[in-house]
Amino acid sequence: MTVKNAKMFGNGLEVICRFKAVGSFHRRYGAYCDEGKSLDAFTEVTLKDDERNDPPISEDALVQLGILTKVEYDTLIKWTKEVSTFVKTELEKKSLELYDIKLEFGYDKESKQMMLIDEISGGNMRVYQNGSYVEPLKLEQLFLNE
Fold first, then answer.
1. pLDDT digit string, tens, across residues 106-144
2. CB contact at 8 A, 39 and 18
3. Which pLDDT belongs to residue 140?
């Protein structure tokens, strides 16, 4: 792994990829789905803004506010689905089920290239085993032990 200096998009964006309707997704859309409904790598972007409860933001708003370009948005969604599906597949090999994962992207300060800027960790994902939530530290043990 190479660590580089990064610059966030705007004041920071979180990109959540959801494979199950849980958490804030279910709170918002529960009138239309049961908790735990399977989702097809549903991806949403939220602003990192504690004061405003990390509001979801649309592609149009991101572009019109100058936070991302259309190309950057498309790349962000594509990479999120690729990384999330990879993590989901690796967890499945250990009989673990990924419900959702949060990623953060930004720019490499030197090259100005877009990149993943936050670690992929148990604290940034919701994982279940046999229908029970797996705590982040337990996830590490289950995943790394053969």
1. 999 888 899 998 877 888 999 999 999 999 989 988 888
2. yes
3. 87
Model-wide pTM > 0.85 = yes
Cβ pair 104, 91 in contact under 8 A = no
Q: How far apart are the first and last CA of the chain?
A: 23
6-144 CATH fold = D-amino Acid Aminotransferase; Chain A, domain 1 (3.30.470)
What percent of the chain clears pLDDT 90, i.e. is strictly above it? Answer: 78
**Residue 138, Cα to own-chain centre: how many angstroms?**
20
Contacts of 114 (CB under 8 A, 6+ apart): 72, 75, 76, 79, 105, 106, 107, 108
Distance, in Å, from the CA atom of 68 to the CA atom of 78, rounded to the nearest integer, reads 14
d(Cα 92, Cα 68) in Å, to the nearest integer?
33
Residue 40: count of CB within 10 angstroms of its CB: 8
Question: Which among 135, 142, 137 is positioned nearest to 95, based on CA atoms?
Answer: 142
Distance CA 99, CA 112 (A): 32
Residue closest to 24 by CA, chosen among 100, 86, 82, 92: 100
Q: Which DSSP symbol is given to 26?
A: H
